[in-house]
Request: fold
Amino acid sequence: MVRIDGTSFGSITVDGKRYPHDVWIFADGSIRRRDRDHEFTLDELDLLLDGKPEVVVVGTGQSGCVRISEDAAREAGRRGVKIISDVTPNALKQYNEAVRAKRKVAGAFHTTC
Reply:
């Protein structure tokens, strides 16, 4: 599983590789570019749930400007998936803790505001 090394405004570093944009990290460890948006949507949740994670971590940005849509929160609850959301520097710590605990985890990380 991947480890998130750190974040700064506009980037995130995963397993030693710096990504100068938002990312999705899937339960299988693969990484894709996430288009910057200030809402975590049901479509994003559905995309991340393909890998059947127990936990989805949402990094809400350096200042916490990303919101979880009501539809996404409701669907996660319906499917028994825990959503953890926090400012991105804290969210990456929670992601790494879930990995260390051997939980199946996916994430969406906003790297700016």
The chain has one domain: 4-110. The domain at 4-110 is CATH 3.40.1230.10 (Hypothetical Protein Mth938; Chain: A,). The radius of gyration is 12 Å. The chain has three helices and ten strands.
